[in-house]
Structures are given as C-alpha cells and as structure tokens.
Amino acid sequence: GSSHPGPSTVLSTHTSGAMFGSALGAAARPGASARALRRLARPAATPVAAGSSGLWAAFVDGKPQGFSTLSVDTLPKHVVECEYAVRGAVLLKAEELQKKLVVPPANPEERLPFSKMVPCNIGNPQAVGQAPLQFHRQVLACLAEPSLVNKDIYAEDVRQRASKYLTGIHDGRVGAYSHSKGHKVFRDEVAAWLTERDGFEADPDDIFLTDGASAAVKMVMQLAVRGAEDGVMLPIPQYPLYSATMTLLGGQSVGYYLDEEAGWGIDIQELERAIGEFKKSGGTPRAIAVINPGNPTGQVLAREVMEEVLKFAEREKLMVLADEVYQDNIHADGKEFISFRKLAKELGTTTEVFSFHSVSKGVTGECGLRGGLVHCYNVDQGVIDQMYKLSSISLCSNVLGQALMASVVTPPPAGGPSRAAWEAERDEIYSALKRKAKRVTERLNNIEGISCQPIEGAMYAFPKVTIKGYVMKKAISYATPADQIYCLEMVERTGIVTVPGSGFGQRLGTFHFRMTILPDEETLEKVLDDIEKFHNEHPAGWFA
Questions:
Q1: Residue 69, Cβ neighbours under 10 Å: how many?
Q2: What would the pLDDT profile of 378-403 be if each residue is shown by its tens digit?
Q3: Other Cβ atoms closer than 10 A to 438
Q4: At CA 287, angle to CA 281 and CA 291, rounded to 5?
Q5: Rounded to whole angstroms, how far apart are CA atoms 66 and 53?
Q6: Could you identify which of 15, 44, 281, 483 might form a hypothetical disulfide with 500, taking C-beta atoms 3.0 to 4.6 angstroms apart as the criterion?
Q7: Other CB atoms closer than 10 Å to residue 67's CB: what's the count?
Q8: What is the CB neighbour count within 10 angstroms for residue 18?
C-alpha cells in the first residue's frame, strides 16, 4: 500500500482545490478520485529561476519544467475536469506494474506476486487472445494491396467482395480521402443490413461511417448541447464516454438510475423523477442515452421497456441516442436484441433516433481498426446537413475502418467457399462468450460479500461488493472511493485490471467493479480464483 498517497498529502491537495469523491459518497462525481490520484502523482512545481527566459524555469531529469503558456492550471476547465475511468488510475498502476514484470527488481522482496497482467478493464477482445474473423481480414488485405484480387491466395468470395469495394471507391485507393459520410459503396452495404434487420428501408444518405462508434456519439452529442443549461439523460451506471463528452461540451449529465435488483432494468418512474428534478433546477433536457445491451451492466432490454422509453422521449421532446454496439452479444436464453429504430417505426413515433454500431464488439473485436456508424431516423435534413459539415471538418473517417464496418454487417455469401469457416469461427466465439457469461455470474455470486446480476449481453460483469476492514479504512483515510482502493489493491496483488464502479456512477453507499468476460476460459477461471481469494483477504489486509 505504500504506493498510494498518504492522508496528509491528500488533505493538503484537497484544500488547494482538488475534487475527491469520499469513500462513502462515491456516487457523486464519477472519476473525480482518479483525477486526484493523478495530481498527487505529479512532481511539485519548479520555482521560476531568476533571470529565466520565460520559456521554462528549469530542467529536471533533462526535461524542461514550468512552461509559461500551458500548465494544468491554465488548461480549459472542461479538459481538466473530464474523466474516462476505463483508462484511469487503476490502468496507470497496471502499466507501472507491467514494467516490473518486464524487468524484475533485483531485490526478490520487491518482485510481484504474479507472473502476468490480465487486462479485464476494457472490452478489447484481441488484446486477450481472441482471433479476428479471417474473411473480413482477408478482404481488408486485398483492399490494402489490390494486386491480391488477381491472385489465388484468398478464396473467390473474398476477392469478389474486395473487387466490389475497390470499384465502388472509384480510384481503388484506400489511402485517399473518402466522402465525409464514408464511401457510398460501404454505406449501401450498411443500409442493406439495416433494411433486412428492421424490416423497412434505410437510406444510405442517413448513415455516417465514423472512427469507431465513439466518434459518432460525440458528434451527435454536439447537436444536443447548446449551452450550460442543456442536459442529456444518462443511465447510471453509464459508459464514461458520455459523461466525459458532456463535460467537454459544457452541458449537464442528467443521471437516471438503473434498477440493479431488477437486473439493471429501466424504470419509467425513475426517468420521470430525473427529468422532473432537472427541469425544476432550470435545466433543459435535450436527449436520452440508452445502452442496450448494457455497458457496464450487461442487461438486455425487453420490448415493452423500450416502447415506454420511446413514448417518454416523445412526450418530453427528447432525441434518443441508441447505443447498440453490443447487439451481437446476447448470452441469455430467451433474450433477443430489438433495435430502437425498428420499434420507433412500429410505434410511429416522431422522436429522433440515432443508432450506433461498431466493429469493435460483437464477435469481431476489431477495436484497433476503428470502424463505426450512426444511422439517423426521423432527423430533419437540415440537421443531417449540419452533421455532414461537422464530419467534413475531419475530412473523413479511416477508409479501412469504413470497409470493415460494411463487411462485418454483410456475412460471406451462403454457399460460398468462405462461409463454413466464417460460421465456425463465429460460433466458437459466441459459444465461449455464452459459457463465460454464465460461469462468471455463478462464480461471483458464490463469493460471500459479492453479488452479480445475470450477464445477459455485452461482455462485462458489474458485481456489487461489500467493502470493509482494511480497504474501507484506507479509503476513508485517503478520501477516495472505496471501490477504487479495492481495485488498486486488487491489481497490485493479483495483476487483474478492473474498473471501479465509481467511474461509471452508482447509488450512494454501494460499490461495484467492472470486469470483462473476454479472457480465455482457463485464464478466466484463474482470474475468478484470484478475485475470490483477494476479496476474502481484503478486510484483514496483507501484513502477515
């Protein structure tokens, strides 16, 4: 525990203006404690040397200190205050520990009690060993090197798709800028998929291809926030992309709590409470974000609940941000994914629905290739024109990511030479995820002091933990959310990287952590063993 800040340091930093969530009040400001720990980790400011040029005051370890233009104190407030807990304090500690694994300390007593880090903090399938689907990778290879289209290295259906895409690009060069919405040949593929999925036609001009779904979410949220009085309703717990973006935009996050005891469901009375209180405070609600299947909570929403959400949004004149990037990750028997776009059409609602999808999740797991999309339903053409303008500022998203997004939603042709292998790869990943979702839920619920709602979809567990004894006292001493100290201690003692629930938001007085179910089954079993051992030991501490 010596690597954590001491109480006196925290108090002095706190009084100078750093914002902390308390150990017991972790729900109030997701990520605040991560910012505090980072500030504590920075070296003290170097006094300006007399007679200095004004560019910097001095050098420490060969690096200039005290720049005159930029410091944390002179950065925009929104930049400093935004937080992204998935890559927060626990990951920073993990990166520090990884260095000790690469070059072990000479002193055996300083060596770590584990042999490898297990990154369970982020939905990054290939980072923990998942193989990419070969069909889509082979298509990309042909796009990157078009001469492969005319060789017999890859199957005919791979080369046919690559040839179609290259022809649609016109100049056949993926290194050239595309249309700012994305090449039409790719948007046509996405439109065909949406048409088949939802049962009514989609217009490719209503589709924007983006660098991952995150870029699409940020673009749409820019449309919602006009000033400090505008708010977007966000689920609590929520994926911190949303709260971070709201902070950057200068708007207000309007949290609505998911019902943990009801499997993290959405309760319409809770929506009414949240929006009513926000209106009374003088705020103007503009949108509601719904993540289905849930991140970090793993629930799959029922049709009836989604219909009520759409009716609520129409009554309150809210646009709907439908985060559906996990739509291919359904693990629970009897559960199915239904798109908000499909239901909006069936209900005849007038509310705008922005639907997001990505190549990063599902069984594809191509996080690093950054492919995503947003489809606009019931959206005024003038607004779509403004979105086009925003997209054009960055010229275009990466073209290989566009191609991958199109290919992922378009399976290899039935009966083609690649279809059987594609189905086998896909089914293997699906089956493993389903087994792991069930196993993680069972194992966590068998640990005294931990409870976990069923992992119906997505790729995470979000268990509630009872934290006490040594870890709770330490959290109180450092004025830091208890689940953050819990996760920091866990990574130091097991090598398992998780994310504290306080980074996603949670009800006051409760504590959680998020972990992925992505590691291979043997590794995951060891992870669960280590979590059980850690949790049983945490009240007494580790001083034997």
A1: 7
A2: 999 999 999 999 998 889 899 999 99
A3: 16
A4: 120
A5: 11
A6: 483
A7: 12
A8: 18
